[in-house]
Amino acid sequence: MKFKARVWKFGDNINTDLILPIQAFYLPAAEQPRYVFHANRPGWVDQVKPGDIVIGGRNFGMGSSRPAARSLKNLGLACLVAHSINGLFFRNCVNFAFPAIECPGVPEAFDEGDVAEVDFEASVVRNVTRIVTLEGRRMPSKLMDLVKAGGIYPLLEKEGLIAPKP
Amino acid sequence: MTIAEKILARKSGQAKVGPGDLVTVEVDTVVLIDNSFTASRWREILKVRDPDRIVVVFDHRVPASTQDSAAAHRTGRRFVQKFGIKRFHDVGYDQGISHQLVADHGYALPGTVLVCSDSHTCSAGVFNCIARGVGEPDVIYSAIKGETWFRVGETVRYELAGRLSPAVTTKDAFLQIAGTHGDHATQNIEFGGPGIAGLSIAARKTLTTMGAELSAEFATFEADDAMLDWIRARRTEKSAQPLEAVVPDKDAKYAAVRKVDLAALEPLVAFPDTVIENSKPVAAAAGTRIDQAFIGSCANGTLDDLELAARILKGRRVAPGTRLLITPGSQAVFREAARRGIVTTLAEAGAVVTPSTCGACGGGHLGILGPGETCITASTRNFKGRMGDPSARIYMASSATVAASAIMGAIADPREFIN
Ligand code: SF4
Question: What is the CB < 6 Å shell around ligand 1?
């Protein structure tokens, strides 16, 4: 999986209540993305384009188990690259098939609006605008396969272990 | 190996694991909560590995606060019925916040693996086990397959020493750690040292629960007799295997070993929006006017918390213009607090004691903050918008500091009320 697009930059400790706030928590999944970063960056969801890339700082996605990663995916974003990712948020990226890479130093390597080229399998992140190349922490292949297969639910569905989506 | 590494090795059938490894482990206990059954999230399970390994808890919105939470409860009850799940905590006698119930009922045993789709599941690490908040798809997978994956991270060990002074709690110890060391993303936390002997299980549990706020993978305590006796007194399946404490190897490798002198701690307050490197001595916030004060959640809804609040509030009143909400962690905690007269003391002081629920902690119901309001909370999170309107400001402190602040109508030092 390779992506090339403009980046949107966020700081350290971006939490799940910012990504999926309580007002959106109980809405149907399709309506939840409208509220992403509603408290800290109102209007952002109208600016972002399908295929764009999110760059995060330390501890991206700290907070709760809520399916916040699903909202980023459903917003059409291509992937997340952050200095470090909260373990639970990382799980949900895998669960909902949203490619995520931990890449120390990435916040310093990008300004908002730069263009990034991301090779998910190789875990290589390049800033095309500034010609900087970084290597991230490789996602274990077992998890990468899960992302490529579309996450946990399609897998369980195929095995007949959960009912098809109503 | 550290405690976490040892359990992960054993449960993945390997002699040794270390940082950087990905392991697939057997899951002993899967806890499902009401949120998981909401229409936008639930995927109907057709087969489970072992219904006796499953616990179902309704806690985030109980009693049902909206039509869709009522519908989620209905879906949950059907699931329980379909698979004959015995450990079910519906609205009523057995109601409570999942992490408090795990403690109340001895559901987490040393050396075992427990998962739940709630971030504060690390709470159960107080029982010397591997417990972690996972995603909904993960709990569904674990219920079906009886296994899950974990990344093995480095471990940071906290050596606790000394005894807490009155009006200072383990919540202050947490605020000290979060304020000084910030996040522990990708790392495990291990608590040990001579200081744990002087801490109740509830006090220890506050520390493991708050591990989620440090983004720790696991937060695990060393075992001692007090903890093992706690489980023995509550465990119902007497026939099961004997309890076996997991101790770290002498040559275990830690990313850091840090001392926490409990005796040297003072009441701290985390300023709004995050607990990461955001704690200050209570004096720095003292005098800040508050609209609401909250004591509750899976971190601070224990009997210890209610008792401490009652000691401070006894014979006093909540300041006019300030609301004090107190939510016990479980109905069992509520009943015991009632038996001991704690509930009466709190109510006479003007506190609103609610039934056990996540309630105000999650901003879902029972105590939502309005625009521009200020709250001081003894719960788990002070994120922007966490407890209601995003313009509300949320300070975080111990139950003692919150109770003292409620009396003053402004953030206050609890040491003025207890000595
Ligand atoms: S009490 Fe708060 S932190 Fe704990 S499980 Fe409920 S909502 Fe989550």
Answer: B 60, 97, 118, 120, 297-298, 358, 361-362, 379-380
Classify strands A2-9 and A53-56 as parallel, antiparallel or unpaired.
parallel
**Residue count of chain A:** 166
Residue identifier of the C-alpha nearest atom 7 of ligand 1: B362
Compute the distance between CA of residue B222 and CA of residue B230 in angstroms, rounded to an integer. 14
| Residue A56 covered by a domain | yes
ipTM, 2 dp: 0.93
A107 and chain B in contact, CB less than 8 A? no
Residue A153, domain CATH: 3.20.19.10
Look up residue B79 and give its two tokens: 């699931």
Range of the domain at A123: 2-158
**Structural domain includes residue A163:** no
Spell out which residues of chain B touch residue A152, defining contact as CB-CB under 8 Å. Answer: 137-138, 140-141
Q: Which CATH architecture describes the domain B3-261?
A: 2-Layer Sandwich (3.30)
Strand, coil or helix: B374: strand
Cβ separation A95–B66 shorter than 8 A:
no
Q: Which helix (H) or strand (E) holds B344?
A: helix B342-348
Global confidence as pTM:
0.95
CA–CA distance, B366 with B134 (Å, rounded to integer): 26
Question: Residues B210-259: pLDDT tens digits?
Answer: 999 999 999 999 999 999 999 999 987 765 678 999 999 999 999 999 99
B270-416 classified as CATH 3.30.499.10? yes
